[in-house]
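User: Can you predict the 3D structure for this chain?
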Amino acid sequence: MNRTGRFLALALFVSLISAFPAKSQSPTADVEGRLRAHGRGQIIGLRVRLTRQNGTRQFSETFTESDGRFAFRQVNSGDYVVEVLESGDFLPASASVSIQASPSISRTVVSVLIDLMPKPSPETRSALVVMADVDTRVPGAAAKHYAAGIKAVEAKDSAKAITELKAAIEAYPKYYAARLELGREFRTLRRFEEAAETLRSLSELAPTRAEPHLEYALVLLGLGRKEESIKELRTAIELENQSSGARNRTE
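Assistant: Here is the predicted structure, written as structure tokens:
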């Protein structure tokens, strides 16, 4: 149907609607949320999306206010996912929301609180990778490929980075840092299937670290496996809290 045909069809549809009395609308609810950011980063103007869990169709999108608050109005009953898209300061995040609106209640409000995780700075990221205690037996050849891969990542040469990091993993399959970086590079390129395959075993190599679960959660989100992603994010937050608690006790 061409543009003129679509316009005429829309006009006819509107005319038909106006010709009949309106039916009583289904009860709806308002979703009111707030983002909580621990550490640096601007929380104003972040994109927040509400989608149904039983499909990929976008329901609505909005932006956060200066205090991190956002709202979706007149939402029908059902199960939804609230997604905070990745920004310059923060990693993506999500939360499940179940809405059961009642016709006997004049206004139903569903509240949601989402914790944001700031993106690590390049200095912090490098330090975390280099200090990974699981990589104490890396052969020299693997370490050489890894160093070349990191240089390529910093130079935004994805092709070379992938080649070098793959070579590092081939030389030492249990190379935690190399797998982490390769998975991140695949995710950046939206090659989510390859990222998932690379990152899947990371939690076994470093069971007490939050990073493997966080990275895998972001990849699962890219694959549309939202429930699994939420589970991995929760595990990452629990491990990070445990790690922070242990550091505080030793200081």
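The longest strand covers residues 28-37. The chain has a mean pLDDT of 78.
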